[in-house]
Amino acid sequence: MDGRMVGKVALVTGGSGGIGAATAERFASDGAAVAIVDINEAQADSVAAGIAATGGTARAIACDVSDIASAEAAVATCLSAFGRLDVLVCCAGIVRDNLVFRMTDEDWHGVLETHLTGTFAFARAAQRTMTEQRYGKMVFLSSVSALGNRGQTNYSAAKAGLQAMARTLAIELGPFGINVNAVAPGFVETAMTRATAARLGMDFDAFKAQVLEQTPRRILGQPHHIANVIAFLCGDESEYVSGQTIYVAGGPRG
Fold first, then answer.
1. How far apart are CA 24 and CA 10, in angstroms?
2. Given pLDDT bands bounded at 50, 70 and 90, which one contains residue 2?
3. Catalytic residue among 135, 155, 240, 247, which?
4. Which of 24, 151, 158, 227 is a good FRET partner for 235, with 20 to 30 A between their CA atoms?
5. Do the beta carbons of residue 229 and residue 246 sit within 8 Å?
6. 175 Cβ partners below 8 Å, 6+ apart?
C-alpha cells in the first residue's frame, strides 16, 4: 500500500470483475476505501473479501445501474458507510452486439441505459457531495468502439456519448474542484471480450492472436493496464487534466 489515496473513498460501478475489479483493487492498494457496486452481489462480495484479506477496506453494494433509484440508493449507501465520496469510476457495461437490421429495441435500450443512463445517474448523485467538498474525481469508461465498430451501433453510440458527457461535466463541475475524464480501452482480455469472440464464431486464443498482430505495442491489454491509467486520473497528480478522453490501446487505432 503506497498511501497516495489514504483517507479517500472511491465508488466503482461494474466492480465485480474485469477492469472494474482491477480498478477497485488498485484503489485499495493505494489506501482508499472502496465501494464495489455491481448487479452481481456475490461476485462483488468476493472482490471486497479479497481486498479485505490484503488489509484493504471495501464494501460490496448490489445495484442495477440502469435503474436511477437503485443508483441513487447505492451512492447513499456508500456515503452512509464511509462518510464521504471522493472518486467515482463508472465501469458497468453490457454488450448486445448485432448488425443494425437485426438489432432489437431491447438491444438498443439495454446498452444505452446501462452505459449512459447509469453513468449519468451516478455522476448526478456523486456531484452533490463532491461539490460540497469542493473536491472530486470522475472517470467514465469509454472504448475505441466510440470511433465506430461494425455490429455495435448501440455500444459505439453509448461510448461516444460518455466522452461527450465527460467533457460537459468537466466544464460544469470544474469550478467546484472536480475533474471528469474518460478512458477508452482497446482490446482488454476480459469475460466481455471472450463473449465478443464467441459472437464472431472465433476461438478466443485465435481472436487474441489476431488482436495482438494488429496492436502496435504487441501487448495484449489486461485489466491492470486500464486500472493504472484510471488511478492516475483519480490522483492529485492529474489536477490539470479534465474533460479528456485517453485511449489506452497499445497504439493508435489504425
1. 8
2. low
3. 155
4. 158
5. yes
6. none
What does the pLDDT read at residue 1? 54
* 247 counts as catalytic: no
Q: Which residues pair with 37 in a beta bridge?
A: 13, 61
Nearest CA to 223 out of 179, 175, 186, 171 is that of: 186
pLDDT digits (tens, 9 = 90+) for 55-109: 999 999 999 999 999 999 999 999 999 999 999 999 999 999 999 999 999 999 9
Residue 55 burial by CB count (10 A; 0-12/13-18/19+): exposed, middle or buried?
exposed
C-alpha cell read off for 206: 485465435
Q: Model-level pTM greater than 0.85?
A: yes
Listed in sequence order, the residues at least 6 apart from 156 whose beta carbon sits closer than 8 Å to its beta carbon are 143, 145, 146, 147, 148, 149
Tell me which amino acid residue 200 is.
L
